[in-house]
Amino acid sequence: MTSVQVDEKHGGPEGPGNTSEEGYQRGLGNRQIQMIAIGGAIGTGLFLGAGKAISKAGPSLILAYAVAGLVIFFIMRALGELLMYRPVSGSFSEYAREFLGPFWGYVTGWTYWLFWVVTGITEVTAAAEYVQYWEESIPQWVSALGFTVLLFGINLISVKLFGEMEFWFSMIKVTAILGMILIGLGVITLGFSDAGDTASFSLLWSEGGFFPKGIGGTLMTLQIVMFAFLAVELVGVTAGEATNPRETLPKAINTVPWRIALFYLGALIIILSVVSWTVFEPGVSPFVAAFAKIGLPAGAGIVNFVVLTAALSSCNSGMYSTGRMLRDLALNGQGPRFFTVLSPKGLPLRGTTVSAACMLAGVWINYQWPGEAFNYVVSFATISGMWAWIMILSAQLVYRRKVNRGLLPRSDFQAPGYPWTSVFALAFIGFVIVLMGIDEDARVSLYCAPIWGAAMVVSYFVIKSRDPEVFARKDHPAPAPTTAGKD
């Protein structure tokens, strides 16, 4: 029996009508899912964080993005395998609960919620910084407050409006990066603009070599690089509201390699060939700086608008996902029942409202430390986001073992290279966490992680003592054992 037959037998997510088995409206179409997947890989980590990473590693940052991008593809294929087995909006939290145990599902759900709250704070902080490019007199906290309220309003209306906003946000980012690449190629090959006399691909190795800060400098940028890729897994959360998840999700996941090659590697190669890596500074978008150096101030303003929309896009996604994650926890008895209620339009407005209120902490952070706000929260967002990746890979390894033993149906979208690709990705994530402990700027996240972990353990036992059935293993509708052999 295949996973498709399982869904048909048990009235799975692709049953009749326009409502998923979880009560959500299937309002996200193919073009929206595709652009959400593309936009998830293009955010503040690239547009703003890359400035700091370039100053630390120079041109070798391109290699760091290439290796990390390969790991991200392995993670996404592992997620895709699980999604085609059982597409649900709880996604990694639900898979952790099923394959690793109720405790791990509980921790994953709340940690991913925290990740998006912290990321939302990060993104509105970045957006507020971008506004100061045009008008420094506007306090950073005022912009952060305005953006938070605006995006919350968008998420109150409908999932279709969310999808449309993400579609156009992503379209702006994609168009801008493609335009920048074409302009950069023109500067390099035709020599026009103020940078035309010095622009050359040789800048990738002529200014101190490809590794001007040594291999160590390159390795120390990996936590910034991994932060840039956070949110690619968001496509998994859309499973409960995609009109045809079995068709759209694999297509979106399979675009990961060329998205990384074009939007990250391609863009960085062009930028670092137009302007020497020594020009870039932390806290300044390399895209804005590159256009300013070329002598196109209008172009720099346009790019600043684009990176502003990138930050708003990510925050918008955060509000979308946090409401769904809180509802998933509530439906499993691991969160307040208050969050189970859907609006008449099928929206988890209660969870979204509480999450948006938590994101308002970003307004206070921007008020207290306007110059350091981005750095304070980015490291913790990285460690909490990587937890979801660890759970995805671990759940996929357990799921595949059960498939090989004939206990579960094979997914229609199997991850290649099992088990070595997943094991390699887990080892790489572990290596990045070690590097974060060495990096003084990133170490703060490792101080916070044990505190959060302790809170999760204590709350788990408190809830379990009140209602032991909440964390009892729940059997999902499953097929009879199959005769599937091993890979």
Can you offer a commentary on this structure?
InterPro entries: AA-permease/SLC12A_dom (IPR004841), Amino_acid_permease_CS (IPR004840). It comes from Streptomyces pactum. Belongs to the amino acid-polyamine-organocation (APC) superfamily. Amino acid transporter (AAT) (TC 2.A.3.1) family. There is one protein chain. This protein is mainly alpha-helical and 487 residues long. Helices cover 69% and strands 0% of the residues. The protein has one domain (8-467): Amino acid/polyamine transporter I (Up-down Bundle), CATH 1.20.1740. The chain contains 22 helices and no strands. Helix 7 packs across helix 8 (140-155), helix 9 runs antiparallel to helix 17 and helix 17 crosses helix 18 (349-359). The longest helix has 35 residues, at 297-331. The protein starts with a helix and ends in a 21-residue tail after the last helix.
Give the distance, in angstroms, between the N- and C-terminal Cα atoms: 17 Å
CATH class: Mainly Alpha
Number of helices: 22
Could you give the count of β-strands? 0
Low-confidence stretches: 1-17, 478-487
Percent helix range: 55-70%
Order of helices and strands: HHHHHHHHHHHHHHHHHHHHHH
CATH topology: Amino acid/polyamine transporter I
Q: Give me the Rg, rounded.
A: 22 Å
Main sheet: strands, sense, barrel: none
Structural domain tally:
1
Strand content is under 5%
Alpha-beta content class: mainly alpha
Q: Averaged pLDDT, please?
A: 80
Shape field: globular
What is the correct CATH architecture?
Up-down Bundle
